[in-house]
Amino acid sequence: MWQTTAEAHVQGHVHDQDLPQQPAEFDLFTDLFATDDEQEWQERALCAQTDPEAFFPEKGGSTREAKRICQGCEVKSECLEYALEHDERFGIWGGLSERERRKLKRRAV
User: Fold this and answer.
1) Which pLDDT tens digit goes with each residue over 18-32?
2) Is 10 marked within a binding site?
């Protein structure tokens, strides 16, 4: 079973045994495009120890659990900054949903 593009990013947040095996090209892609700083904060993220599906709920699904986890995360601001800079359109990043991040971007302009 393959994940969506947005969910694939979560691979850096979860243990490999929790996900289907990805082709070697995916690891190469991650190594080429993820900076050391990105990898460092992602490794410290609380979502690394939780179910990635909570952060990518189905349309209309609850975001409560993911947001609760984000509230106690030491890298919440780095995560949100990453999502805003990379225009992440899916999932909960830095405690905010896609809709909340769009609103935040509009207010910043």
Assistant:
1) 444 444 443 434 444
2) no
**pTM of the model as a whole:** 0.65
Give the range of the structural domain holding residue 16, as residue numbers without chain letter.
5-108
Enumerate the H helices of 1-109 as residue ranges: 5-9, 24-33, 36-44, 64-71, 76-85, 98-108
Number of structural domains (the chain) is 1
* Residue 104 in marked binding region: no
Residue 91 annotated in ligand binding: no
Q: What is the pLDDT of residues 32-81, one digit of tens each?
A: 456 666 778 888 999 988 888 899 998 889 999 999 999 999 999 999 99
Q: Is 70 annotated as belonging to a binding site?
A: yes
Q: In 10 A of CB 37, how many CB atoms?
A: 10
SS3 96: strand
